[in-house]
Amino acid sequence: MKKLELNNLGVQEMNSVEMTKTEGGGILWSSLGALLGNVGATVNSVLGDTSQFLSKQLATVFSLIRTL
Questions:
Q1: 37-57 b/e with 16+ CB inside 10 Å = b?
Q2: How far, in Å, CA of 28 to CA of 63, rounded?
């Protein structure tokens, strides 16, 4: 099978800036993506801290019940 060269067919490469503009991205979508990433990280952190807190509280309650 013959190897096709895309450059010979008129296909051009684009850098990441050109790709965001071509796909309808740009500053707004990049900012929104970064914001959602930060919100996701914050939610994960809060859920992890809440889980640790509840585990410690339950352990304390069960240890108090055992001593009765």
A1: eeeeeeeeeeeeeeeeeeeee
A2: 52
For residue 18 the two structure tokens come to 């050109």
CA distances from 19 to 9, 31, 47, 68 (A): 20, 16, 35, 67
Which residue type does 7 have? Answer: N
- pLDDT, one tens digit per residue, over 43-53 is 999 999 999 99
**Are 20 and 30 contacting, i.e. CB atoms less than 8 angstroms apart?**
yes
53 vs 59: CA distance, rounded Å: 10
Stated pTM of the model: 0.50
- Residue 58: alpha-carbon gap to chain centroid: 31
Length of the chain: 68
Rg (CA), the chain: 26
